[in-house]
Amino acid sequence: MTDTTVTHTPAADHPSATEHTRWSPRLWGALVVLCAAMFLDALDVSMVGVALPSIGADLHLSDSALQWVVSGYVLGYGGLLLLGGRAADLLGRRRVFLVALAVFAGASLLGGLVDSGPLLIGARFLKGVSAAFTAPAGLSIITTTFPEGPARNRALSIYTTCSAAGFSLGLVISGLLTSAGWRLTFLMPVPVALIALVAGVKLLPRRHDGQRSSGGYDLAGAVTGTAAVLLLVFTVTEAQGAGWLSARTLGSLLLVAALAAAFLTIESRTAHPLVRLGIFRDAGVRRANLTALTLMGSYAGFQFVATLYLQRLLGWSALETALGLLPGGAVVAFSAGAVGRLLDRYGPARVLPVGVASMALGYALFLRLDEHSGFLGLVLPSMLLIGAGFALAFPSINVAATAGVADDEQGLASGLVNTALQVGGAIVLAVTTAVLTAGSAGGTDAHAQLSGYRPALLLVTGTTALGLLIALTGAIRSGRRRSQAPAPVADHTYPAEASAEQEQGVLVSER
């Protein structure tokens, strides 16, 4: 039997963050701190890519070892996000955020100073771990400070735009810094993280240290869940070298399945689970996480293919490649205000499919690539469509993934959607790499390279089309609810995709 508890969440509970008042300078300052940390987390996912050849030459690393300079960060980030989200709920969001940000700064400094490949990979893993705690803690601070509706939509559009801009501009910044020295790509985040840390101590509301979820720590769930995600990311990352059908890969996937089954069993039986499985009864949360998997997966795969194509086949330099991809990142960076207003007016359920469709069209246009393609004819239109789509879709996903979730589970909801983004990126990127390698068959001439790039881009486009179908189901369901629901009350503040109960100003939580 499901017991439905109805809890009113009026905007007055958050007087400094309501849509009816101006945000104070202190509130703006806190948001800037959170945005700076998220920008750095996202930046580190992509920024190291252009620097890899220089790192390999300087530290005498093989291609397989270089892969782990990238994968080490993704492994720590994607593998520990669920634990990071729950730690924020249990230990205090402000405290977890500040400690993890300090670790991020230290790991960045270490990565810029080491002269050993294994130490560099270890520093990257440690940065990923720290990001796995700052990302859900920061997002849940926002969602518990700003009430659902225009105020939260505005804050999340700014926050997620900073995240998307960090990921999109990573290659550009890396190209500029690597021309002066690859170590700068690791050292650049240090002063930014330290400034954000000092400002965070002053500006982040201390009530977030007191806002803790009740209950135990579910150590068994934490061990099995974290191990399953870590092993999954490790397996798909290593599958290209070991072989997708090798005994090692298949055995690892079986172990992942066993760990996942054990995790689900534990979570369904423990009194205080790491992940309350009932959260997935919310169709909006499910759709947001599934769309997140496809969105980041396709974007990571496209960025990989486009970078190789522009540098290897067209002969662009690292800096030229970074500047060629800049228009997409620029669209994302300057879109925060407009996207927030669109979310207020139409709701994420209707904005999200428009964004995903724009990205799919951009990928499809890039399929026209050949050995003589140019910036204006191929790269620019694709990057503008992809940038506009990412700017619309990424904030919509974050709003949808946290809408209607109780305050004491905002860390969990934030950890789930961030995990979906990172795991999706790792899995689709690994499959894209395998398709590209199989298509080119090891050839280096233009025909062989194009034979790898085109099927890889088809995979990217198809993955995005799947995400579009998922997003469209949400838009259709939201439209039906809107046509069937009674007229909204005057103080309606919830996003357009909220359930019928939420559209009447209440929060429904199933226990």
From TrEMBL:
Topology in membrane: Multi-pass membrane protein
Major site of localization recorded for this protein: membrane
Domain Major facilitator superfamily (MFS) profile: 30-479
Superkingdom per UniProt: Bacteria
Listed CDD domains: MFS_MMR_MDR_like (cd17321)
Keyword entries, A-Z: Antibiotic resistance, Cell membrane, Membrane, Transmembrane, Transmembrane helix, Transport
Pfam families: MFS_1
GO annotation (BP), single: response to antibiotic
SUPFAM superfamilies assigned: MFS general substrate transporter (SSF103473)
TM spans (from-to): 27-53, 65-84, 96-113, 125-146, 158-178, 184-204, 216-237, 249-267, 288-310, 322-339, 351-369, 375-394, 415-436, 456-476
GO terms of molecular function: transmembrane transporter activity
Region listing for Disordered, in residue ranges: 482-511
Gene3D superfamilies per record: MFS general substrate transporter like domains, Multidrug resistance protein D
A Gene Ontology term for the protein's cellular component: plasma membrane
PROSITE patterns per record: MFS, SUGAR_TRANSPORT_1
Localisation per UniProt entry: Cell membrane
Protein name stated in the entry: EmrB/QacA subfamily drug resistance transporter
Source organism of this protein record: Kitasatospora cineracea
